[in-house]
Write a structure and sequence with these properties.
Helix Hairpins; single chain; 2 domains
Length: 295
């Protein structure tokens, strides 16, 4: 009597280490990303640096997951090979069992042993099939985790791009200081449209910029700031205000600096010698990209 053909497709791989790696990478990514929400614009430079590091970490984790996936596929192929061999052995055992039944007079004992061996190989084949299914599921989960890591890496790139965009909307702050008691020195800023910001015109309607601090009696400071400056030239100068002359014979040394997105630059140190004396401090140019050039 000819036994039915028992053909079994086998696929097997072990992926516990892949799950652990992917889950660890995901948790690490989430821990890294938590501190970077709701940050002020002043910390965007640090965020860019951290996001680059996060991006490198995610790419490394993605690479590891891809390596694990390749390993899992290799193990699956080996499992398929082992399953095929087990199926082949099962067929051979069936053949021996069939031969033993046809030739029962030779040895009924041999036939029973062959049948038992065939059952053993069938059990092994079923176990191999179960392991193959589990490995297949773990490989799919690893693939999903790899896709998630790619998504997180893209989010990190988008966040870096957003930070750069926000930082391109720069803030420029200029200030001067002097130490002569009773002296009134005024900061003048002229923008690209000819608008002049000073003590009598702290804001200009329709234009960004403001003289936010005006000291009338020295020692003192004057501060001008602008958010999202328009591209063009900005000229800074200092003047000895002639109406507040407590110590007319004393020259006034004036210093200060401009602070911008990419750093700072000091004003040249000037000396005002008499009331009404005006000295040029610095001229800058703001480019379309938000860069500050010293002219």
């Amino acid at each position: 009597m000819k036994r039915p053909n028992r053909e079994i497709n086998i696929f097997n791989v072990s992926m516990l280490d892949v799950l652990s790696c992917a889950l660890g990478a995901f948790l690490l990514l989430m821990l890294i990303m938590i501190p970077f929400y709701n940050k002020e614009a002043i910390s965007y430079q640090k965020e860019i640096h951290q996001l680059k590091k996060d991006l490198d970490t995610n790419q490394n984790a993605l690479g590891r997951c891809q390596d694990e996936l390749a390993k899992a596929l290799h193990e699956a192929e080996e499992a398929q090979t082992r399953a095929t061999e087990a199926q082949h052995r099962a067929k051979e055992s069936d053949a021996r069992a069939e031969s033993a039944q046809i030739d029962a007079e030779k040895s009924k004992t041999q036939a029973e042993e062959a049948q038992a061996e065939a059952e053993k190989f069938k059990t092994q084949a079923k176990e191999a099939l179960r392991q193959a299914e589990e490995s297949k599921a773990r490989a799919e989960e690893a693939r999903i985790n790899a896709e998630n890591l790619r998504g997180e890496a893209q989010k990190a790139k988008d966040a870096e791009k957003e930070c750069k965009t926000k930082l391109s909307k720069i803030l420029i702050v200029a200030y001067i200081r002097w130490s002569v008691p009773g002296r009134d020195v005024d900061l003048y800023v002229t923008d690209l449209n000819g608008n002049t910001f000073s003590y009598y015109n702290k804001k200009v309607s329709g234009y960004p910029g403001e003289l936010s601090e005006d000291s009338k009696v020295g020692p003192g400071n004057e501060v001008w700031e602008i958010r999202e400056p328009r591209p063009g030239r900005y000229v800074f100068s200092a003047q000895w205000y002639k109406k507040n002359d407590k110590r007319i014979g004393t020259p006034t040394a004036v210093s200060g600096r401009v602070v911008h997105r990419d750093g700072r630059v000091d004003f040249k140190r000037v000396t005002l010698t008499h009331p009404g004396d005006t000295q040029h401090l610095l001229t800058i140019n703001v480019t379309q990209e938000g860069d500050v050039q010293i002219l």
